[in-house]
Specification:
This protein has helices at about 10-30, 35-40, 45-60, 125-140, 175-180, 195-205, 265-270, 270-280, 290-305, 310-330, 345-360, 365, 380-395, 400; strands at about 30-35, 60-70, 75-80, 85-95, 95-105, 110-115, 145-150, 155, 160, 190, 215-220, 225-230, 230-235, 335-340, 370-375. The chain is of the alpha/beta class. Bound molecules: zinc ion. This is ROK family transcriptional regulator.
């Protein structure tokens, strides 16, 4: 088994790079900031900051801009990250569709495109089309510094393959690292979809800072979660940490594809919701639906219109999401849980029940310190997450990646 290893020792030069990285990460969030503010946030002396910022300006990563009001009405020069010079390509790969978007490292979208395919298509044909589209975008957008790819979990990131692909037989043997690592003259970083969503919320979600820990609870065709804890994505040994979709909520329950019984995913994924709805509310599906997200929207709309059966189904789903949140809280101690993907369309119909379950089943000292929200991202969280994978990695090594487009 190939293991992934990213951190070994740190040389003295690495320390400067770590500090430069901390500065660009602050500027990614704050947009414009004075040297004094950065010094305060990092707990470094003004002299150290001046030296570090000087290097970032010389490298073309940071610019001085205008005047900002500092402490005691002192006016200081503002600093900003040259985000528009550093673009990333995000690629979302899922069961029926792949999407590609060009963003800058502040999360601004430049263009996006989507390609549908059937599970009967050959995987190599789909991958060839994906590569061709990326090559075209790289020709058009010269300032791309990295590519992020989000794939369905559980993804073994050391090996480069998806561990459970029973509904995608053509994809069983695909190795994403072999396919993409050396295809382009840009670095490619790959993570699973829930981790991508967590990074999208972390970098582009506009959450109040400082933020210690964020859990992204993905409820779509699959159920999963991604955790960013103190600025780091939680990976585990194989990269599959926080697979809460496969935590059993009934050890005698139905058998899951993963080998466990009664997995949370079997109760609250879009597939689980639709299976019940097609039986209890067949009138909603007389007209065929385009995709599961749209089918779920019909159920939530019916509940909003007062349909009692729909309300009952939605409440059941909300209860399962509540159990999932209790698990996330006990396992990872998040400051905020953000619920995203298709089921999040239930929004205000789901939140009161989820919060009630969390209050009932966790200690008050804990539950009162966790915020539970529905994702407010306007862009598909997995596609945005793919861009966030690349953003996260390039911001960690600014002098390596953000100097590619200096001139
Ligand atoms: Zn399972």
């Amino acid at each position: 088994m190939k293991k992934f290893k990213e951190v070994a020792g740190n040389n003295t030069s690495d320390l400067s790079e770590m500090n430069r990285s901390a500065i660009v990460r602050i500027l990614q969030q704050k947009e414009i900031c004075s040297r004094a503010e950065v010094a305060k946030m990092m707990g470094l002396t003004q002299a150290s900051i001046t030296k570090l910022v000087g290097a970032l300006i010389d490298m073309g990563i940071v610019s001085e801009v205008g005047i900002v009001k500092g402490n005691g009405n002192r006016r200081s020069i503002g600093l900003r990250l040259n985000a528009e010079k550093n673009l990333v390509i995000g690629v979302k790969f899922s069961r029926h569709v792949f999407a590609i978007g060009v963003f800058d490292i502040s999360g601004k979208l430049y263009t996006q495109q989507e390609t549908e395919y059937s599970l009967n298509d050959f995987a190599e044909d789909v991958i060839a089309s994906m590569k061709e589209q990326i090559h075209k975008l790289l020709k058009k957008y010269k300032n791309v510094v990295a590519i992020g790819l989000a794939v369905p979990g559980p993804y073994l990131r050391g090996e480069g393959r998806i561990a459970m692909v029973t509904r995608m037989p053509n994809w069983r043997t695909v190795n994403f690292i072999d396919e993409f690592k050396h295809e382009f003259d840009k670095p490619v970083f790959i993570e699973q979809d829930a981790n991508a969503g967590a990074l999208a919320e972390w970098w582009f979600g506009n959450h109040d800072r400082p933020l210690n820990s964020l859990a992204y609870f993905l409820i779509g065709e699959g159920v999963g979660s991604g955790i960013v804890d103190h600025d780091r994505l939680l990976l585990g040994n194989l990269g599959i940490a926080s697979e809460v979709g496969h935590i059993s909520i009934d050890y005698k329950g139905p058998v899951c594809e993963c080998g466990n019984r009664g997995c949370l995913e079997l109760y609250c994924s879009t597939m689980a919701l639709l299976k019940k709805a097609e039986k209890d509310l067949p009138e909603l599906f007389e007209k065929p639906y385009e995709n599961r997200a749209e089918a779920c929207a019909r159920i939530f709309d019916a509940a909003r219109a007062g349909n009692k059966k729909a309300i009952k189904l939605v409440n059941e789903i909300a209860e399962y999401l509540g159990f999932g949140c209790v698990t996330l809280i006990n396992a990872y101690d998040p400051e905020i849980i953000v619920i995203g993907d298709s089921i999040a369309q239930g929004d205000e119909l789901l939140l009161p029940t989820i919060k009630k379950i969390v209050e009932e089943r966790t200690l008050k000292a804990i539950s009162s310190n966790v915020r539970i929200e529905i994702s407010k991202l306007k862009i598909d969280p997995t596609l945005y997450g793919a861009a966030a994978i690349a953003t996260d990695r390039v911001l960690r090594k600014p002098s390596e990646y953000l100097t590619l487009n200096k001139d």
